[in-house]
Amino acid sequence: MSVQITDDEIRQIILRRKQKEKERKRRKKRIALAICLVFLAGILGFSFSTGGGIFTLFQTRGVIFIDAGHGGEDPGAEALGRKEKNDTLELALKVRKYLRRKRFKVVMSRTDDVNVDRPERAEMANEAEAKLMVSLHRNQSDGEGQGVEAWIHSGGNSSATLLADNILRNLEKEGFTYRKIGTGTLPDASDNYSENRYSSMPSCIIEVGFISNESDNQRFDSNLSGNAKAIANGIETTYETLYEKDSEE
């Protein structure tokens, strides 16, 4: 025996289905909202537990100037089939990435294979009102030279020394030999490289291993991201000491 369903009953069935669908969508929205609230609460808890507020999560910190040494018609040091200008740019772009993750605004002297005069690089950093400037280079030697070293202003600025030391110590943890922090220039300790002479903020030149040394090149290539993080962390540690420590006390 067939059951006859009236038009009114059909409308009631359709209405109940629509109501169930609406309720299902409402439940999904409530669940999504709850997940968002839990996530936000976790972020807020972390932010305040580290001494900041919600605004510190999204604020941009100071400007950091990263200089990729040489470029364009200036290849820099050349050895073992490599050109310094290529290595410095590849590393600088990685350093920029990690500094941005730390909420720094990063200004670079170059982002492709072009040459910028050395005094102009320092002037670019000054115009950007950078808090710190790091110029990345590779070293070269006819002998058995290896390891990382830094060059700062001949005046031996303590802030620049701190910046250089923090970076070199981090690179040492990545396997490089910590050679030295030099003042002035290699030929003349009373002279200065343009990056340090003309910059108005703490600055240093970092020689990231010897391009003429196979072992240093291996450390450079196989751990490029680790080296970039080490440099970025050294910059951040210095920035915190020089510019954020007093504001947190």
TrEMBL record:
InterPro entries: MurNAc-LAA_cat, N-acetylmuramoyl_amidase_3. Residues 122-236 form the MurNAc-LAA domain. This is N-acetylmuramoyl-L-alanine amidase. It comes from Mogibacterium kristiansenii. The chain crosses the membrane at residues 31-58. GO terms for molecular function: N-acetylmuramoyl-L-alanine amidase activity. GO terms for biological process: peptidoglycan catabolic process. GO terms for cellular component: outer membrane-bounded periplasmic space. It comes from the Bacteria. Keywords: Hydrolase, Membrane, Transmembrane, Transmembrane helix.
